[in-house]
Amino acid sequence: MDIGNVDYTTKIPNNVGLADDRRVLKALEGWHPGYIDWWMDMGPEGFQDALVYLRTAVSVDPKGWAKFDYVRMPEYRWGILLAPQDENRKVPFGQHYGEKAWQEVPGEYRAMLRRLVVIQGDTEPASVEQQRHLGKTAPSLYDMRNLFQVNVEEGRHLWAMVYLLQKYFGRDGREEADELLRRRSGSADSPRMLGAFNEATPDWLSFFMFTFFTDRDGKMQLESLAQSGFDPLSRTCRFMLTEEAHHMFVGETGIGRTIQRTCEAMKAAGIEDPTDIARIRALGVIDLPTVQKKLNLHYSLSLDLFGSEVSTNAANAFNAGIKGRFQETKIEDDHRLTGSTYPVLKLVDGEIRRVDEPALTALNMRLRDDYTYDCAMGVERWNKVIEKTGVQFKLELPHVAFHRQIGEFKDVNATPKGVLLDDEAWAKHRDEYLPSKSDGDFIAELMQPEMEAGKFAGWIAPPKVGIDNKPGDFEYVKIAA
Amino acid sequence: MDATTSTAPKKQHLIDPEICIRCNTCEETCPVDAITHDENNYVVDAEKCNFCLDCISPCPTGSIDNWRIVTKSYSLEEQFSWAELPVQEQIALGAAIEGGDGEAADDEAARLIAEAHLGVGGKSVAPASAGKPRINLFNRAAPAIATVTGNFRLTHDAADNDVRHIILDFGGTVFPVLEGQSIGIIAPGTDKDGKPHNIRLYSIASPRDGEKPNANNLALTVKREPGGVCSNYICDLRKGDTVQVTGPFGATFLKPDDPAANIIMICTGTGSAPFRGFTERRRRAMRDAPGRMMLFFGARRPEELPYFGPLQKVPEGLLRKHFAYSRVPGEPKTYVQDKMRQAADEVALFLGSDKTHVYLCGLKGMESGVDEAFADICRSAGIDWQQLRADMRAQGRYHVETY
Q1: Pick from A1, A249, A467: which is nearest to B387 by CB?
Q2: Is B272 a catalytic residue?
Q3: Taking the model in full, what pTM does it have?
Q4: What DSSP string runs through A347-376?
Q5: Looking at this predicted complex, what is its ipTM?
Q6: Which one of 1.10.3720.10, 1.10.620.20, 3.30.200.20, 2.130.10.10 gives the CATH number of domain A18-478?
Q7: Which among A274, A30, A28 is positioned nearest to A159, based on CA atoms?
């Protein structure tokens, strides 16, 4: 069959030949109603009947995977889409380096693989749950459409992981797939598996920060799983990455447009001092120091997602050929890491120091460094936006020791500059570093919806280019449909 | 010709550094490794880019969709250093432009055509026997001027839709076209932001030798869209008015010239335009062609079906006609896919021949229904539609132009 094209003859669009795989098709069809129930209960609240201008993949071929049309979200064609198979692909790292990539799960790595798939899978519905109330306060139909695109694609990513569970992990996999629909973000009884995915996403600034920082963790995790010697996982992740790019885009341009509007409003009002918060807020825009505090919060929460800096689990997954490094195939080394070291930031005798650790156990640290670099480049592009308006202010990433719940620095209080404070000093200064209750209240007050086509809430600038090259007044969501 | 030494203006593909988020999707997608990056920017190597447009649709930002006509290509180093795109340099009007083998060298038109062809689900390929199209002879900077010699309402007076048959005469200007190609029309004036109006593309509804044989003219089928700047401009044109025309555009959605080719044409509304050209060409140039033609044409009511009267006069031997009406009072709603299912045996017979070409033209909404109908028909006939469609596409026998 033609792997590029999607089979729509089964209920579940796919390019994995489901029509000929009765067992998996039946399992997925059995899971489908529960998924739709979950989507209706926990998906975007209040807009399930709206017609949304969404892109749907009709093929994983570059020309076919972004087909735009109006769709009601519950009718979105969630499908199983894998990047095309390369028959000659080899395991690109670890002790099996150079062996032919696996099309089935190697027995000895079954538990490890299943856990990785479940953790990745758990984040996908979690973010939909976190973002379900945001539609009501969308600053424009354009932004609302972007939110819903992110939501349906997170839903599809859940499908992608559930397919792997159903296809390759038998009964355990089926049970895990059901559990993915049972856990709830922020629930006291059955929370999602990772911390950042149980935090609230109360406003659009949080949403943009989340898509920039937390979805970027997702990108890094997918990048390293896309290297996997288990070929179906690699192919799944490669196609997911193409979609994940849209989520990065929503975050980066969302913050970019927010600060653009702030700077323009400041200039128009003749305010030069970016810390003149009361006057700037009176303009109905979000002051840059508050944007910095939001950034501090979301960056630090996202760093926790990389786990402990030094980790034998990470070493085992690499050794086994299951989870590689960011752009593994472009790195020039032995791809086994048996003798090399990697510098890790650690807390030594009450000081933050760089210590050489075996490169194998430092893989989480390495991926986190790649992540930080990626984030820093994005922050620099935001700074260019500010610079162009003439406002004197620079956003920056806080120190990696700042506000951590996991890893080396979880028991200390570090400032965004990396200075260690005692508990008392931290309590005194906390609200200078992280959003305070009053910051949250101010932002919440600002979140007034703008639902007229072509119009934007006063705190955010319109985008430079429309989605799918549509004109500025395009009706991205037909609410009263 | 050596691209580095040629002084003819050429099209260059560029990425807007102010909009790009450096997600690497384009670099990952490019089949010829023409896209690369440094710490600052993602850039396109003009020496390698072959205008396949594979990178355009996966880009999440739209930054990828930028083009300049240049006399000397911007080097990678120049592009790495940019904080924003350079403005379009002034090029002498009327210069012939080299621009890969795409559908159009004009970025506005190329984008519109790429969008219209998305439904084909892969790279569009021209029929092997199609004539060689000329593209982009006229552009916004140097448009052709045509004179309106006719403007007739095609839909019934009682119909809700105002669809018009427009005839444009090119006088002494050479404007060679093939059936299936489009032209661009620029409405005069500016939009509310003071920018010139976007170009709109319209399929040519007449054969290559003119609306009237051997006249230097062509016909368009234009529906008046509420609030549509260009369609209202065209529908209000009067005999003797002049119009700025760009193009011709389109290098794949073309009629096969092989007389043995069978052609299945499926359309709604003004999507009938190219098929009028196809049919008329066959009628004029190859009356005894062994190949068969079949038309599935959908409209709300007979009164709203463009060319309803003239079509009745086309003999069934030349063209098998199936009309589907979705809004006739007292009758069940019928769509083109329903008519296709009714004619399943005949369609399956056509599909069994490697001389058969399929064309879809009309609203995007028709695509999935038609595709499902093909899949159903094939299943009953023991044909794998997925595979067949992919094969037909690769052989230039499956074409989609929808909007």
Answers
A1: A1
A2: no
A3: 0.70
A4: EETTEEEEEEEETTTTHHHHHHHHHHHHHH
A5: 0.87
A6: 1.10.620.20
A7: A28
